[in-house]
Write a structure and sequence with these properties.
Layout: H1 2-40, H2 46-57, H3 61-70, H4 80-90, H5 106-116, E1 130-133, H6 147-154, E2 165-168, H7 170-174, H8 188-194, H9 201-211, H10 241-259, E3 265-266, H11 280-284, E4 290-291, E5 317-320, H12 326-332, E6 352-355, H13 356-365, H14 368-383, H15 392-403, H16 408-419
Antiparallel strand pairs: 1-2, 3-4, 5-6
Helix pairs in contact: 1-2, 1-3, 2-3, 3-16, 4-5, 8-9, 9-10, 14-15, 14-16, 15-16
């Protein structure tokens, strides 16, 4: 009898071990499948699932995520992380309506390529960089239309393949002078959206919104010097100077000296006489970015009668008054407060200064707000929720990874591994 009991006990233990192993394997496969689904939007092949589950089972969910992105040993990736997920992630930044379903363009393609090639993402607002289609049957890149990128997308190109999407020098491709180039800020798509008409303050506002996750309402600071506010801002709107002192100055005191970096840019487009019968938005689509070195665009000097003694923009020299005041902690500047420009207009050596869009882009990208923004956008994209208080320590870790080299691919992989249990 004792032997029989011992036999059944052994059988039971073996059964429990088997069930536990099968459950663990099933959990690893489910976790791997969820990671792949979120990173690519499509189910994995059996071979990919096996490779990813093996990585998860060995305690390395980050490697499993990287398999989904770029492929496992002997198993090709779908490319959908780049072609679909990153395209939808970056496209809202390229248009004023923040439409995620707008066509591929030079802005979104450059973001995709920079993530794919693991470039330092902090250079995205300043580098002489652009990504273009490498297929031989595409329309040539044009500074007056988006045909090249729309054809690349319509061809079903795998944007994860360097043979389909290749890195180039923006100044060589677009014809802009090297000193005019500032990463995606001088892409055709960004210019069409934010340099068209207006006063170029839109470029500054949407750069904050898209890349620091801050809108102007969140960075208001009426304690900054008001000496660089342009003439077009009335100091007594509606005859009441209190409106200026209690509202207008809060944004313009810091924004106007920073937006001066874009003083040489415009996006002209055909007027009604040149394109009779064509709707305004379609005429804007035919426009092109221009850069007039040493010559301030007229849009910086409009409505000068609003306040004739206001600041008259002489060049593209910017000053960062937000280095002090509330925005010092809110934005978290990480670079020394240097002057990289040709002038010295700062009232205080704690204010950073520079000439042109590229140096401003570098100033903005080297901030805590920029790093946190990229991480939070990746988190929302992959985890399909906002990070909560319980995620704070992990989010801080992802931000540290980003600070270590600006590698957004690693951020995406680590976010996917972290959120796998909730996906």
């Amino acid at each position: 009898m004792a032997r029989l009991i011992k036999h059944f006990t052994s059988v039971y233990i073996a059964f429990v071990v088997l069930v536990t192993a099968l459950a663990a394997t099933a959990d690893e496969r489910d976790q791997a499948r969820r990671i792949h689904d979120r990173l690519t939007g499509v189910p994995p092949t059996d071979a990919m699932l096996n490779a990813m589950a093996g990585a998860v089972g060995s305690g390395d969910a980050v490697t499993a995520a990287l398999y989904a992105i770029d492929g496992a040993p002997g198993v090709a990736a779908t490319g959908q992380f780049y072609t679909t997920v990153l395209k939808n992630w970056s496209t809202p930044w390229t248009n004023e309506a923040q439409d995620a379903f707008a066509p591929l363009n030079d802005y979104s393609a450059t973001v995709i390529g920079a993530v794919r090639d693991e470039l330092d993402f902090r250079e995205i607002l300043s580098a002489d960089l652009i990504y273009v289609g490498a297929r031989g049957n595409l329309p040539a890149y044009s500074d007056s239309n988006n045909d090249h990128y729309e054809a690349l997308e319509n061809a079903g190109s795998n944007l994860g393949d360097p043979q389909e999407l290749s890195r180039r020098t923006q100044s060589n491709v677009t014809g802009l002078a090297p000193e005019a180039v500032a990463g995606v800020l001088t892409s055709r798509a960004a210019a069409r959206a934010f340099f068209v008409d207006g006063t170029n303050r839109a470029m500054f506002r949407f750069t904050l919104l898209n890349h620091l996750c801050l809108d102007l309402e969140q960075v208001k600071d009426g304690t900054r010097p008001a000496d660089r506010i342009r003439q077009d801002i009335s100091r007594s709107p509606g005859g009441d100077s209190r409106l200026f002192l209690n509202s207008c100055v809060d944004c313009h005191a810091g924004m106007d000296p920073l937006a001066q970096a874009f003083a040489y840019y415009d996006f002209p487009y055909p007027d009604e006489e040149e394109q009779p019968g064509l709707e305004l938005e379609l005429r804007k689509d035919l426009g092109r970015l221009v850069y007039t070195e040493g010559v301030v665009q007229g849009k910086y000097l409009i409505n000068s009668a609003s306040f004739p003694t206001g600041y008259v923009t002489p060049d593209d020299h910017w000053t960062n008054y937000w280095r002090l005041g509330d925005n010092s902690a809110r934005i978290g500047w990480r670079l020394p407060a240097d002057n990289t420009g040709s002038s010295d207009l700062a009232r205080n050596p704690a204010y950073a200064e520079g000439d042109g869009a590229a140096s401003l882009g570098w100033e903005l990208a080297n901030t805590e707000a920029f790093a946190q923004c990229q991480v939070k956008k990746a988190f929302r994209s992959i985890c399909v929720r906002e990070p909560g208080p319980g995620d704070a320590a992990s989010v801080s870790g992802f931000v540290s990874v980003f600070h270590g080299g600006g590698n957004m691919k690693q951020v995406f992989a680590r976010v996917a591994a972290y959120c796998a249990a909730d996906l």
